[in-house]
Amino acid sequence: MNYEKIYFAFIEKYKSQEFGEGVYTESHHIVPRHAGGGDSKDNLIRLTYRQHVFAHRLLWKAYKKASDLKAWLLMSGTEESVRVAHHKALGLANVASGHLDRIRLLANTEQRQEKLKELNSYKVKSGLAYVYIKMAQDVWTGSNHTEEFKKHRSKIYKERYSSGKDRERILGMQKKGCEVKRETSARFSQEVIENAERNEEFLHETSSFSKNLFISPEGLIFQSPALAASYYGNVAPHTIDNWCKRKQHGWERKPKAA
């Protein structure tokens, strides 16, 4: 379909329309500014709001420019969709300009990875990581979901498991995924022991925050997961907590003596 032809036929049809008293109209650039159009009288047309939205939709269909998509979405979308529309249009513009290809090479350099490592380490030590995790958990706690959302998710899962073939496929994928996670977790636990920094000061520190003692595969006893993580220096406290709670890979915990 020739949307460019439709667009200019639309402009030709409505460029001389007359409006009654009190009718809301908007000024539309026939050739958009981003395409070189100016503010001259010959490049402007009065349209109703609905006509204006439709004109930008035709421009987007005709030329596939991110700016036209952004204008159409911002005008036609609800208040909640404005931010999504903006970022979608910005992303398309970055792709079209080649900017995405230029910065992609910088995304996974050693320098970038070192900065991310420092940032994540700071989050753990400052406690921000646990704040963010708690916020995410609070958002997705079942009690915070609406009844409509719960019913919708229940319907989806029931449909997935209604077919015997689909059920076997999904359960098979879940089983394989669990096996891979267990193997990866066991391998990581071994690497933690082998590549430990062994910061001795944390081995003898005490903590009143936990009711349990945390025991490593080496038999070392720590007062909290945070102290264990600080001793080994290459693992997060919540990882050690999970290993000990589940008695995985030789890690375990036991109550502190009263």
Give me some keywords for this one:
single chain; mainly alpha; two-stranded antiparallel sheet
Distance linking N and C termini? 79 Å
Q: Which shape, going by the Cα principal axes?
A: elongated
Count of DSSP strands: 5
Order of helices and strands: HEEHHHHHHHHEEHHE
For the biggest β-sheet, the strand order reads: 4-3-5
Number of helices: 11
Q: Approximately how much beta-strand content do the residues carry?
A: 5-15%
Helix content: 55-70%
Q: Radius of gyration, rounded? A: 30 Å
Q: Can you tell me the residue ranges where pLDDT is under 50 for at least 5 consecutive residues?
A: none
Overall pLDDT score: 85
Outline the fold blueprint.
Elements: H1 3-14, E1 26-29, E2 44-47, H2 49-63, H3 66-76, H4 82-97, H5 99-104, H6 110-126, H7 128-140, H8 147-160, H9 164-194, E3 212-215, E4 221-222, H10 225-232, H11 237-246, E5 252-255
Helix pairs in contact: 1-2, 2-3, 3-4, 10-11
Give structural notes.
Helix 1 packs antiparallel against helix 2 and helix 3 packs antiparallel against helix 4. The model has no long low-confidence stretch (mean pLDDT 85). The chain contains eleven helices and five strands, in the order αββααααααααββααβ. With 258 residues, the chain is mostly helical. The strands form two sheets. Strands 4-3-5 form a three-stranded antiparallel beta sheet. Among the domains are: 3-101, no CATH class; 200-255, no CATH class.
